[in-house]
Amino acid sequence: MTAQMIEEAREGLRQFPPALAQEFEAAVEAVLPTLEPDELDQWLRDGLDIARHSLRSWEASSEYFRASGPVLEQITYDQMREWCAVGIDLMETSPALSGALFRASPAVLPHLSVSQANDWSAQGKSLYKGTWKSGSLSAQYFDVSPQILPHLPLSQMRLLVDLIDSLASHSYELASACLGMAPGVLSQLDRADRAPFLEFGGIVAHTAWVDARVYFERGPGALRQVSEDQRPRYLSLAGQVAMQVGRLGHPYFIEAAQAISEVDKDIHEGLLELAEQLAQHSGDAAMEFIKSSPRVAQRLGIDDIARWQEFGLQILQQSRDGGEAFFRLESARGEEVMEALSSRVDLDRVSELIRMYCKALTGVDVGVKASEELTAKGVGWVDESSPTTEGTTIYLPENVERYPTKEENFSVYKVFATHQAGRLEFGSFEYQSELAPDLFPAAQNGSSNGHGNGVVPAVVEGEEEQIHTDMELFFDRFDDRRLAHDLFTIVEDTRIDTIVKREYAGVRRAFSRLQQAAIERRRPVEDMPARQAMVENLLRASLDEIGRIRWPNELAEEMRTPLRILNRIRSEGATVQDSAAATALLYEWLSQIPNVELDSEDWSDFEQEMSADPDGGEDSDMMPGSGSSGLEESFMPFMPGSEEQPYDSPDPVDFRGDFKPELVQLLMKLKGETGTGDAPPIPLTKEQLQELLEKSVEISINELMDMDLAESSGMFLDNLLKEVNQIQGERQEGQQAMGDDSTGADDGEELPVEAASFYYDEWDFRAADYKPRWCRVQEQRGESGTSNYYTETLHEHTQLVQETRKQFEMLRPEMFRKMKRLTDGEDYDLDAVIEWYTEKIAGATSETKLFYRRNKVDRDVAVAFLLDVSASTDEEIQKHHEQRQDDQFDDDPRKYLSWWAQRRAEAARHPGKRIIDLEKEATVLLIEALETIGDKYGVYGFSGYGRDNVEFFVYKDMDEPFGDRIKERIDKIAPVRSTRMGPAIRHCIWKLQNTDAKVKILMLLSDGRPQDHGYGRDRTEKEYAIHDTKMALTEARREGMVPFALTVDRAGHDYLKQMCQDMAYEVVADIESLPRRLPALYRRLTG
Amino acid sequence: MTTATEAITEYRSWAVEEFRAEEEPYYVPVSDEIEVFEAAWNSKIPVLLKGPTGCGKTRFVEYMAYHLNRPLAVVRDGKTEIEDESNLPLVTVACHEDLTASDLVGRYLLEGNETVWIDGPLTRAVKAGAICYLDEVVEARKDTTVLIHPLTDHRRILPVEKKSQLLQARDGFLLVISFNPGYQSALKDLKQSTRQRFIAVEFDYPPRETEAEIVQHESGCDLDVALNLAKMAEKIRNLREHGLAEGASTRLLIYAGRMIAEGVSPRRACQVAIVWPLTDDGEVQRSIEEVVSSIFED
Fold this sequence. Notes:
The structure holds two protein chains of two kinds.
Chain A (H helix, E strand, L loop, with lengths): L1 H12 L4 H14 L5 H17 L3 H18 L2 H15 L3 H14 L8 H11 L4 H17 L5 H15 L3 H17 L2 H17 L4 H13 L6 H15 L3 H13 L6 H12 L3 H17 L2 H17 L1 H8 L4 H10 L3 E2 H16 L4 E4 H7 L10 E2 L3 E4 L2 E2 L5 H20 L44 H7 L4 H23 L4 H13 L9 H13 L7 E3 L3 H13 L7 H15 L12 E3 L23 H7 L25 H10 L15 H10 L5 H4 L4 H30 L17 E9 L4 E13 L6 H9 L1 H14 L4 E7 L4 E2 L1 H12 L9 E6 L4 E8 L8 H9 L7 H17 L5 H19 L2 E9 L5 E7 L7 H8 L9 H13 L5 E8 L16 H16 L2 E7 L4 H9 L3 E4 L6 H13 L1
Parallel strand pairs in A: 2-4, 9-15, 13-14, 13-16, 16-17, 17-18
Antiparallel strand pairs in A: 1-5, 3-4, 6-7, 8-9, 10-12, 11-12, 14-15
Helix pairs in contact in A: 1-3, 2-4, 3-4, 3-5, 4-5, 4-6, 5-6, 5-7, 6-8, 7-8, 7-9, 8-10, 9-10, 9-11, 10-12, 11-12, 11-13, 12-14, 13-14, 13-15, 13-16, 14-16, 15-16, 15-17, 16-17, 16-18, 17-18, 17-19, 20-22, 22-24, 24-26, 24-28, 26-27, 27-28, 34-40, 35-39, 35-44, 39-44, 41-42, 42-43
Chain B lengths: L32 H10 L4 E4 L6 H11 L5 E4 L2 E4 L7 E5 L6 H5 E6 L2 E6 L1 H8 L2 E5 L6 H11 L4 E4 L4 E4 L5 E6 L12 H4 L3 E4 L5 H12 L3 H15 L12 H12 L4 H13 L3 H14 L3
Parallel strand pairs in B: 1-10, 1-11, 4-7, 7-10
Antiparallel strand pairs in B: 2-3, 5-6, 8-9
């Protein structure tokens, strides 16, 4: 019976393509074992029904048959019928979808229950809109379902479908691409993040569908940068923001994620919470906040960030733009608040202060720089965070953030700087081998120890020995240079600290605090071998912590002597010579102590009874016993093994920093700065340097450079020589500038001057705050042309020149002005006396103001002319005329034509004047006039493009004398680019500030409103630029200057009124009168 | 030269040329300036004192006036009187930019129905044989410098133009001028023709120990405090030309010392007596305050 049923079905399938029959045969094979006969019957009929349903439904049928086998392995036939009913229903919509559903069935069944079939199918169906594109998208849905469902429960799949659906309304290609990517994307995400990811995706699809593909590509990667548990939160925040800001939502998402990855993961939660608060007010602010978080977090802890955010939030509530600028870190207030909240002290901010402080202390012109700068030079210093000095500059860490308050952190800087300054002030680098120590008479240089005595005489002349530094010679006396260097460092630092504390009582407390902190960090002495332990103990003693010395009781006597030596260096009047002598003594003592592990039960704190008595004990006590084996013997009982351990230098003490006396002396010697001062710098061969390098323990090449030794030592030498040459070069330059044998720089040619950069704030009127250091003004000298232009202009305007000159001459004040009728003065004013006398005789008593005084009248005026040389000044003035006259000819074209022809012929003969030409002419006339009255003046031009490229041309600087060069530069005044007035005005203010005059005038000559790229929200926005310019002019006034704006733009009234408000301005209506008008105005301003 | 302790309950007045120090002014010589000045006075060579403000120029002149004996007759109001004087009168004129020649020489005043000639301080000094000290002479108008030329050479003559008179200076008269080369602009420099009529004594702040001694004496503070003040001044003076036009003067140190002696805390005293008077530049102020706080503990 089964066979018959099958045969019938086979018969029924004949009308379809043979491919279907093949599928059928295979399927029968697969299902036959599992199906009861009636079930088989049903199955066959279902298959046939599907195939017969419509034209191409045989394909679906084929899928049905193919899926049957695998499906039946997973579920019962009844369940399968229920499942397939869903597919059959779908036939009504599209057989192709139905086929896709069947095709996917075996693979999705492990992830779905039979009861979910409907949902699953419905979601796919919802993508189908009756078009073939939507059909294939929908089919794709079923096809990828098996790969998606392992990652996403069906309920959440809805989100994906909605997303895709939304995209499909814009582009099927995009939708299909995203759907194809979905499995891969989802697999990259953590389970908890998937739904939020899709939710945000939905919003992106809605607000900025083109970004969807990028979102799928980069989203998971971006998201991974956020702390795991915060990712859903971040996504929902991003979604909330995207709803507000639309298109920007996705870029924000990517950028903010990138930013937050730079912040410690622990505070992500806190940051997001703060951002969420902001998002309620402004999405931009929230995202800008996160984007700024790395910079903010560098300065503030999360609690302070919250305070900072709170401050910004307040601003945000008052002004959206203000708040957004605040969080974008584009407002001066944002920086201020941050600075106020942060306890960190940055070297940037205090370097000038510290520099002056150190200069005061040392009396030398020391520089103060970040340690990084020294290490970057690669001349021997490697530690970027510790304070140090190379003899001329004090190097300090970039910032200090050790304590909770600014004051405390600053005091750390102060201690660092005071110690380094102390090295300079109290002569740590001034060791001279031939000088005798005062405090250690017994320890004459070299005489008391047996090591390398012969080297000392080498100081005497002889060309080659010249390059030795005294410090080098000193260390040469010891076999173990490292030990000697360590001891010298301890002794010398002790000396410096002691003097500093004696001389500068005020820093004592801060000093002690750092000493205390330094000692807390030291490694335990007990673990160290004997010699090293003794060095460590000396170092502890040098930190004023006798009580922190740990030493076996039995050997107390052996520790006492070195301590006594060290203590003596604390006496008043100790010099670096004494330090050297003490070092030699200590070395003598310590070198006899075997560096072997100590084994003693009786480690204890060291009681120093003679600590109060630095001079206690005879000098002979300080010397090791004559039979130097004595020391070693006393140690013997406590040394179980006799194995000599390698000697390690003690850990550095942070506030003392690096101490490299040998290198410093060498550098100073190379620079020719030792001794007499004017000794010529000593040339040094590479070989000699090499030798030094190999000897010195202060330079560890390995740390310095990460290459093989030969190469890196060569590199070091280069750096060292470069450093030295640079200084010598500077010096030579200085000499050359004075002499005249330099290379052709004097034959009238001006050396090209590099543009100097200046930074200025810009006023953001929306935020009602400055954007800090927003604009970069590049000052450069105007190009030179010929002076003919100047002369010709004067010639052309002979009449006018004479007129103005005469008028200006009248401005020149008389040297003295007589002030009459004073109660006291130089002498009697005869008129007043006669009058008084007459009245007196007449019996009237009148005023007794009978004196006169001559008051000296100085004309003390400085003026800065700021010319607008933006591109618009290129415009010909004729055009103005044309525009004006156009309408006159409306009714008579012939008249117009003849006028036009005439005009053109004229224009060909005389090329039309441009605005800039008139500006130049006016300038020439004014200069001519100014020279007659002797006012100080500068002529500048400005243009530029964008905020970091405001070009500022100097045609004549304030203090520059007038001459041919100026004339040549005026020739080359030419239109350039945009008009960003604010920074140019601010730079002019700076110029005027540096000029000494009672009356200062800033005259701005422009041809139109200020505008520039980024000067306002977009190019068409006028408000921003006008407000900034206005603020700049106000600043000028605040500085006691007289700003005056002059424009040749006839539409100028509207914005000038706003820009200048109560300040003086003028619109020169007839532009051609400018050359006449400008001097007249100037007279009026200063007369 | 009244010290802060002496009670002055009523004002006293002198004619300018009669004013003399009653007590010896306190002055600690730094080098041989006393001998030099004496020699100049003996040989009637005018003296130019150069040096920064508050380093003791004026005090030095007072001290010299006190010590230079002049057992001579005094001409006053046309009459000759022999006075038992042991020291020179000192006429000090603080010069300012409106100081004119007639301010120095004298002028007619109206009194009742007639005019009365009143001698100016310079004339009085010339007549009385006093030391005439023109403090900060470059500040005065240029015409005053012309006036002193004939007084400074061998003639020792003061022309009184308005009375058509020439006055020969009496013995004892010595013109002393001071100026501070530090902060004057080139514009206010002394003309060579004027400069080269004087011998010049250069002053600078005294060395630390001496300065401490002076500060202690003048202010009545402890020696420790005085030493610290002097040390601090030395440090601050290192900043000259680097943000500071002038170093902290000894005078300011004395003020600070007095404040401390009065019980003001040292840091605060230095702030009000030294840091703030010295400069208005906030950054420089802070640098100096750091120096102060390094030296003084509270």
